[in-house]
From TrEMBL:
Entry protein name: AsmA domain-containing protein
Domain AsmA: 117-485
A family per Pfam: AsmA
Protein's organism: Brevundimonas abyssalis TAR-001
GO process annotations (BP): regulation of protein targeting to membrane
Length: 591
């Protein structure tokens, strides 16, 4: 030890700093030998500035308890402050090791650390560096590797940045940063060019602690910066699935809680990439991970439409924030969506979605949703309004001509518990309503709604394209425990009044609807049999009750044989006594 002079020095053998009792009796720091010298002028001014430090065989053990306590912090009740070490103009490290055990995330790391005076080649790439930290471990049961290379710690000054490169691979994600610490050994300020990629953005939660949505495979890059507790990731560009993504993200700690602000934009959005955020697997023929392709195949095999991926409620309770997303253009899709705008606000475990806005080539869908994730099972409320959506976009054309035209209005109001969208729908209560105030239907199909066999089939077989007005159509379902029962189901045309009954089952995603039609004009060859709409919601089958038809024809034939041929014919005549529905009242009630 040298205490006199302008750079007093000290040497210590077998230095140990113990850890807390709960840390399995592991010392936080062990050093085989430490040599250091400091500037006397700085010491007299109350500042520590080392001109030289040599650390031989250091072993650092950093343990984070499940409840968040950190073994290297004496008073862990205050805010999480970044590491700030004194300036060391010349730092040498020999045969060092760093061991990390973060029990809450299942993170372990065992790394070697060395710092030399001169840059030298390390690893297969033979990169020149003076500082090296390389290690392996695990994150949530998956392999983890970390590599940090930097300039030699020689002739460092506070006003000269220290440059580094870091690579992290784990939890299915890959991160690479090339940057600089603005003031050496002050880790509260640095900048870097960051690139990251992986099969699902949600995996980043295990690495960063920031809640990110489920996505298809992604590749992003941008400017990362830290300023005390504020982290920013700006000028972000890249792709998520088959969509481009750009924008800015910030993460700050406010009142000891993480707060995330994000403003994101897509110039050309692939719609199924957005639906992946809701837990739906992306199109397996496009950009998707093997796990997502398997999930998509399982949903197709089960004819399921609603995603059953669980919402991670425990993650939503860890942070607050705000997201604004807009897509200026949407790639060609079956729903004819042309633009999207979404807003999300997360506060104390309650997620509000406002707006939910989808623009179509004709029409729009707007609404809000609220997810209360403060309990083990989320409680959700959804209110969506559809305006002006064209029927010809969902009802197939025949011979190149639309069978039905018109603009649909709709509203979905549901609430209830559920750990996923499918679970929520299966346990929900509320109403689902669709209204067509007016439109046109091919007369052949309108006649068949009343099973007017003679006229309907003749018009179809002759390829008659004449239409009849739809005065109104209203379908309203009262939903209880995921089963919607038709309270109103009416299709009123100039020639037929059709009324229906049945269920929309959100538990198994199936329809079971029977439609009875009455002609408004006398018709020959009218058979009384309901039209049936049944099967999976995503691909229902339309047919008739064949047993009812067979029974009626057989009965009429028997009567005709016993009484007279004219009596048999009379049994097939529709007198045409149906009256117009009160469309104004029906529409007003449905809304």
């Amino acid at each position: 030890m040298t205490l006199f002079g302008w750079t007093p020095s000290v040497a210590v053998e077998d230095l140990r700093i113990g850890g807390p009792d709960w840390a399995d009796e592991d010392d936080t720091l062990r050093v085989g030998r430490f040599e250091g010298s400091a500037r006397l002028q700085r010491l007299l001014a109350g500042q520590l500035e080392l001109t030289r430090a040599v650390v031989i065989e250091p072993e650092i053990v950093l343990i984070v308890h499940e409840d968040g306590r950190r073994s290297w912090v004496m008073d862990d009740t205050g805010p999480d402050e970044p590491t700030r070490l004194p300036l060391i103009e010349r730092l040498l490290i020999r045969d060092g090791r760093v061991r990390v055990d973060e029990r809450g995330r299942g993170l372990t790391l065992d790394a070697a650390i060395d710092a030399r005076e001169l840059a030298e080649g390390v690893g297969d790439e033979d990169e020149r560096s003076g500082f090296r930290l390389e290690g392996e471990g695990a994150l949530n049961g998956q392999p983890l590797t970390l590599r940090v290379l930097g300039e030699p710690f020689v002739q460092l000054r506070r006003d000269r940045p220290w440059r580094f490169r870091a690579e992290l691979t784990g939890a299915g994600s890959e991160l690479e940063a090339r940057g600089q610490i603005t003031r050496p050994f002050d880790l509260s300020h640095f900048t870097a060019d960051l690139s990251l990629s992986g099969p699902d953005l949600a995996n980043l939660y295990l690495i960063t602690g920031v809640v990110t949505p489920n996505t298809p495979p992604y590749s992003l890059e941008g400017d990362l910066a830290r300023d005390d507790s504020l982290w920013t990731f700006n000028e972000v560009t890249g792709r998520v699935g088959d969509s481009d993504l750009s924008g800015d993200v910030s993460v700050d700690r406010v009142d000891d809680r993480l707060r995330v602000e994000a403003d994101l934009r897509s110039r050309s959005l692939d719609l199924d990439d957005l639906f992946a955020v809701l837990g739906a697997p992306p199109d397996p023929t496009e950009t998707a991970s093997p796990e997502q392709r398997a999930r998509a195949g399982a949903m197709r095999a089960q004819a399921r439409l609603l995603p059953d991926a669980p919402l991670r409620t425990e993650r939503l309770r860890t942070m607050d924030g705000r997201l604004d997303f807009r897509a200026d253009e949407v790639k060609h899709n079956d729903l004819a969506v042309t633009a999207v705008s979404l807003g999300a606000a997360l506060e104390d475990g309650i997620l509000g979605l406002d707006p939910i806005a989808f623009a179509f080539a004709q029409g729009e869908l707007n609404g809000t949703a609220r997810i209360d994730a403060t309990g083990d099972v989320p409680q959700s409320t959804v209110d969506l309004r559809l305006a002006g959506y064209p029927l010809e976009a969902v009802i197939p054309a025949r011979d190149g001509q639309p069978t039905v035209t018109g603009r649909a209005l709709g509203r979905v109001r549901l609430q209830g518990p559920g750990a996923s969208i499918a679970d929520f729908a299966a346990r929900s209560r509320g109403t689902i309503t669709v209204v067509v105030p007016q439109g046109q239907m091919r007369e052949a199909f309108a006649e068949l709604l009343g099973i007017n066999v003679g006229r309907g089939l003749r018009l179809l077989l002759s390829d008659d394209q004449r239409t009849t007005p739809i005065r109104c159509a209203v379908a309203s379902f009262d939903v209880r425990d995921g089963i919607g029962t038709a309270s109103t189901f009416i299709i009123d045309t100039d020639v037929v009044l059709a009324q229906g009954e049945g269920t929309l089952n959100l538990r198994n995603e199936r329809l079971d609807i029977r439609i009875d039609g009455e002609s408004k004009k006398p018709r020959l060859l009218r058979v009384w049999s309901p039209i049936t709409v049944s099967g999976p919601i995503r691909s229902p089958s339309v047919g008739v009750d064949e047993a009812a038809i067979a029974g009626q024809v057989g009965l009429i034939a028997a009567i005709g044989a016993l009484v007279a041929p004219v009596a048999g014919v009379l049994g097939l005549i529709e007198p045409g006594l149906a009256e117009d529905a009160n469309c104004g009242a029906l529409i007003s009630q449905a809304r």
